[in-house]
């Protein structure tokens, strides 16, 4: 029975903290997730009304940071710092792992992208926060060891997609800025009918080109916003589709970051019955070498991802 049904209420009446309590989640993990949820209230406000300019600094990847990137990072980091349950953090906006508590017993480590897709803020498209959570202090371990992952989508509504390893559940921020359960146990169909293709098409390798041509030939609809969070959210909520940011002819690792983007998204999509692959191996089995690692990705409905892997294996022959 679902937590919503056990409580004898409609899903809309269950808030995030209560939901996690009813799922019998660890109290410290619940605290950590609720701290991130609280931080997101301030990020929403910053996005709505904040400075859209550049910060004059760059991140680990040499990309210009927006004032909003830096602010969102500070908002989350401060919460994690004072939560009392975090050992280490890594943020896409900072260039090193920060140790918060040298004693990691019973604590968590968190990798996060405070404002993914921030190049879309000035054109007023949706952006998001992505979070990956591990027990202990090791952030350089395969994503299959995550104990929770979530993203928050700042769109016309603010929603959160969360998994603690018991399915993936959607919450929405209400007028009091609290998250209430919208739906539990989202599931992906085996095959999708939408596709979100990142990277320049004229740089695709033959296997990826064949995959995308196949999707088009079967009538899949193109849905690419340029923001990973809204693009994955569309696939999860509609229950059908595949997102790719593949290896390119001049860039074998694609664009997206393993720690901050791929691992948490792969965890959520697998929890919904989907798959996530580099084209050659499962994303969640990658052993990160550093916080800056990138990898190609094909993520979404299982049969679509398997087909991409098949075409890519054939291109190697
Ligand atoms: P952004 O650079 O705007 O932060 O990882 C970053 C990301 O956006 C993803 O959100 C998005 O899926 C991807 O890059 C878009 O890249 P392209 O501009 O190359 O399509």
TrEMBL record:
Residues that bind Mg(2+) 1: 92, 113, 115
One Pfam family here: FBPase_C
Enzyme Commission designation: 3.1.3.11
Cofactor section: Mg(2+)
Pathway: Carbohydrate biosynthesis; Calvin cycle
Chain ranges of the Fructose-1-6-bisphosphatase class 1 C-terminal domain: 189-311
Keyword Zinc: no
EC class of the enzyme, as a word: hydrolase
Principal location class: cytoplasm
Annotated ranges, domain Fructose-1-6-bisphosphatase class I N-terminal: 22-184
Cofactor binding comment, as recorded: Binds 2 magnesium ions per subunit.
Binding of substrate, residues: 116-119, 224, 255
Keywords from the named record: Carbohydrate metabolism, Cytoplasm, Hydrolase, Magnesium, Metal-binding
Keyword hit for Hydrolase: yes
Coiled coil: none
Subcellular location, record wording: Cytoplasm
Self-association state and partner proteins as the record states: Homotetramer.
Family affiliation: Belongs to the FBPase class 1 family.
Identification of the protein by name: Fructose-1,6-bisphosphatase class 1
Gene: fbp
């Amino acid at each position: 029975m679902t937590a919503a049904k056990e409580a004898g209420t409609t899903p809309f009446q269950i808030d995030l903290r209560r939901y996690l309590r009813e799922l019998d989640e660890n109290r410290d993990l619940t605290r950590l997730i609720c701290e991130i949820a609280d931080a997101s209230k301030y990020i929403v406000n910053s996005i709505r009304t904040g400075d859209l300019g550049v910060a004059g600094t760059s991140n680990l990847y040499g990309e210009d940071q927006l004032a909003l990137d830096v602010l969102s990072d500070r908002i989350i980091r401060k919460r994690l710092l004072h939560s009392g349950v975090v050992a280490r953090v890594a943020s896409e906006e900072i260039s090193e792992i920060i140790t918060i508590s040298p004693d990691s017993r019973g604590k968590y480590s968190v990798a996060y992208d405070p404002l993914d897709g921030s190049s879309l803020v000035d054109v007023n498209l949706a952006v998001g926060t992505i979070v990956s959570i591990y027990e202990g202090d090791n952030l350089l371990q395969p994503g299959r060891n995550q104990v929770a992952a979530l993203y928050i989508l700042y769109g016309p509504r603010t929603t959160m997609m969360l998994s603690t390893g018991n399915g993936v559940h959607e919450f929405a921020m209400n007028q009091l800025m609290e998250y209430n359960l919208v739906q539990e146990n989202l599931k992906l169909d085996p095959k999708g009918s939408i596709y979100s293709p990142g990277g320049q098409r004229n740089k695709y390798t033959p296997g990826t080109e064949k995959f995308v041509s196949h999707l088009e030939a079967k009538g899949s609809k193109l849905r690419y916003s340029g923001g990973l969070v809204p693009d994955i959210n569309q696939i999860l909520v509609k229950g059908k589709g595949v997102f790719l940011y593949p290896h390119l002819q001049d860039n074998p690792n694609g664009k997206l970051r393993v720690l901050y983007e791929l691992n948490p998204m792969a965890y959520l999509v697998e929890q919904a019955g989907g798959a996530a692959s580099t084209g050659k191996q499962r994303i969640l089995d990658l052993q990160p070498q550093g916080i800056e690692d990138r990898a190609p990705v094909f993520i979404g409905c299982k049969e679509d991802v398997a087909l991409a892997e098949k075409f890519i294996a054939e291109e190697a022959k």
